Amino acid sequence: MNIYLKLIWAYIKIGIFGFGGGYAMLSLVEKIVVSDNKWISEQMFTDIVAISQMTPGPIGINSATYIGFVAPGAYNPALSGPLWSILGSILATLAVTVPSFFLVLYCSHFIRRHNESGAIKAIFSGLRPVVVGLIASAAIMLMNSANFNPEGTVSQLWISIAICAASFCLVYFPIQTKSKTIKIHPILIIILAGLAGYLLYGI
Description:
Elements: H1 2-17, H2 22-36, H3 42-54, H4 59-75, H5 82-113, H6 118-141, H7 145-148, H8 154-172, E1 175-176, E2 181-182, H9 186-202
Antiparallel strand pairs: 1-2
Helix pairs in contact: 1-2, 1-4, 1-5, 2-4, 2-6, 3-4, 4-5, 8-9
């Protein structure tokens, strides 16, 4: 049962100190889950991030649910059954949401009362660039071999870079036609990227 206490404590810390939303807290999640406790591998972590991005809901909560599901079995093979995994999912999800819920509830009340305070404005002026830095750190952290080159081949590295660049361009730059501007939906890009991955590596 020690793994469940560790999960609860880990995600309470993530819920309280994970400033800036899901992307900003990824570095903290990776440090606690992969580096410190080694509940999952680096490649599994990046897979969980990808799945959390594609499924509905915030990435922080989705990743907590997935990691809570796989961590008990990785920690102790005797806890690899579905009931133990579901229990881990529930505990990790509650641990990451409940503390932050009460923290936001209190902070919103406090900020609403003091929103004209110079100290509050100064605090947010300092927090904004920190959040941008945390999100940039998460982006750099995900640019690893587990994402771009898990097989260790040069061809796979360049293919992964090409898929990444093409996806970015399709999302960021709209397609101009004579009559209108077309913005490709991110869901379509996810489907196309998955299809490209299957054609390149699955066949």
